[in-house]
Amino acid sequence: RYYFVITLGERVVADIRSDVFRHVTTLSPSFFDTAQSGEIVSRLAADTTQVKSAVGATASVALRNVILGLGAVAMMVFTSPKLSGLVIAAIPVIVLPLVAFGRSVRRKSRLAQDTLADATAYASEQIGAVRTLQAFTNEKLVTGNFSSAVEAAFEAARSSIFARSFLTFFAIFMIFSSVVAVLWFGSRDVLGGTLSPGTLGQFLLYSVFAAGALGALSEVWGELAQAAGAAERLTEILAEKPAIQAPLHPKLLPATARGAISFDDVSFSYPAGPDRAAVHGLSFQVKSGETVAIVGPSGAGKSTVFSLLLRFYDPEIGKIMIDGVNVREADPVAIRERIAIVPQDVTIFAASARDNIG
Ligand SMILES: Nc1ncnc2c1ncn2[C@@H]1O[C@H](COP(=O)(O)OP(=O)(O)OP(=O)(O)O)[C@@H](O)[C@H]1O
Ligand SMILES: [Mg+2]
Asked: What domain count does the chain have?
């Protein structure tokens, strides 16, 4: 059981990880202008791990205890309908508050995952810029900030664990109180002579089975509520739609690239930037085979022109054509395959020189 159940959990998490990563790679640059990369990595690593424990182990515990609980309740009804009426009436009193507590566990677990992601995002940003960090001797400041972020994550996790343990406490307390109630009313019936001691003993045994099963199920409920908080963060990212999408029937670029470009009265301002347009009323033409340099002061919008050409963003007004095709009407992947770009800051990927050149 352990092998199959845990392997199932690992399998599900591996699938979620690849799905989320695949989806993240399709999102438009405008998404990454506001999202922090470390925050996304935390979703891939920490949130999926949180989900894992719920998928495997929990499912098998839930299955076993549902069967055990139903069997015990059926035997209770069979043994003494009167006493089991008492127990069945108590079930909503136990289950309804559990549902409410479960909501609070989910909210708190989500908050814990959010603060953990903040800490991860901070660490990955600082490690990514470690040269700048050390050049300005900011180690102390950064370490302090990270410690507070980790502390905040700890506090959030503690509050989530407290909510979950309170749920378990409440469930076990209520369940065993109802067992005591059964014993109380049952023993009065035994003294009155309407119930035999053997039947009461039998009934009590079944009710302990049922109580144990319900207790385990409430534990499962807590686990699921906690995982739901993390799953919410994953579904959010999966529901994110890329701002730039290929049209339903993309226009094909001419089979042989000519390299003719035209900008017609193009204006664009960054969604995450100031209202001031980065490119304003820009028109120019580059004929096939022509070599053109765009020159201007820093912040003039030269890189922005290339971002628009690569269709990382869509201009608010104006039209951009490549080889006679409006870039909005073509598949962005087809356009990008036609363009080679040598960026200002070259990224060296953690791969061989061969792979980097490739
Ligand atoms: N991702 C972004 N989000 C918000 N604003 C941006 C973004 N990228 C650039 N900008 C702003 O848009 C304007 C044009 O920037 P751009 O990078 O195109 O300038 P540039 O001409 O390439 O400058 P440089 O010569 O320094 O490379 C600047 O005001 C810049 O601050
Ligand atoms: Mg630039």
From this structure: 2
CATH code, domain with 230: 1.20.1560.10
Tell which wins on pLDDT, 176 or 47: 47
Does ligand 1 lie within 6 Å of residue 305's CB atom?
no
Q: Residue 207's closest CA among 244, 179, 180, 181?
A: 179
pLDDT digits (tens, 9 = 90+) for 270-315: 987 777 889 999 999 999 999 999 999 999 999 999 999 999 999 9
Whether ligand 1 lies within 6 angstroms of the CB of 300 is answered as yes
Do 99 and 174 reside in the same domain of the chain?
yes
Please give the C-alpha separations between residue 252 and each of 200, 244, 249, 263, 289, in angstroms, as whole numbers: 81, 17, 9, 19, 21
Q: Ligand 1 within 6 A of 272 CB?
A: yes
3-state secondary structure of 322: strand
**What is the whole-number distance in angstroms between the Cα of residue 263 and the centre of ligand 1?**
18
